[in-house]
């Protein structure tokens, strides 16, 4: 069996993980919120290196000697599509995996997150994106409550009640022209 070499840049002398070294693009408060399971789902964008400058939306803009306060965009503007959600969500799950596995969670921990990502991909193809986003925010909040109790398996469960409440009435319907064209074949 090969020995695993721990990178000194990622591990502290006591053997714990240095998340700031491992994820240098994420600020300490955000990392703390993730590890304490109180990062709101709407703030996942802070984990996406493609959008890092946008985490400063609420700053004052001084251009041409005028003061302009930039407003924070809505969640629908931030998360326009599945990609804009999945990329930072994967970083979030990576942090949870490293933390959980190094603190006694079972080796199956990552599979819970993979199953949720697959579920998101499936429902985003069947339901309107705005409804999927609301579903995700509600599901995410429920899972954070579970994780406070050390329970991570809820990420792989399909929340049928939540789907009925937030998704079912927002099903995507095939384009009428598409449907007509497929009948001719």
From TrEMBL:
It comes from Irpex rosettiformis. This is Uncharacterized protein.
């Amino acid at each position: 069996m090969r020995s695993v070499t721990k990178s000194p840049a990622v591990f502290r002398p006591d053997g714990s993980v240095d998340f700031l070294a491992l994820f240098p693009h994420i600020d300490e408060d955000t990392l703390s919120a993730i590890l304490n399971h109180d990062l709101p789902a709407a703030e996942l964008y802070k984990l996406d290196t493609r959008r890092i400058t946008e985490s400063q939306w609420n700053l004052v803009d001084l251009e041409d000697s005028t003061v302009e306060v930039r407003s924070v965009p809505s969640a629908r503007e931030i998360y326009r599509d599945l990609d804009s959600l999945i990329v930072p969500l994967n970083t979030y799950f990576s942090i949870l995996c490293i933390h959980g596995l190094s603190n006694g969670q079972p080796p199956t921990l990552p599979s819970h997150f993979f199953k949720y990502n697959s579920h998101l991909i499936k429902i985003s193809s069947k339901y309107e994106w705005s409804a999927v986003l609301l579903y995700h925010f509600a599901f995410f909040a429920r899972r954070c409550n579970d994780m406070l109790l050390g329970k991570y398996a809820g990420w792989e469960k399909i929340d049928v009640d939540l789907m009925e409440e937030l998704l079912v009435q927002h099903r995507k319907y095939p384009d009428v022209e598409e449907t007509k064209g497929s009948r001719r074949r």
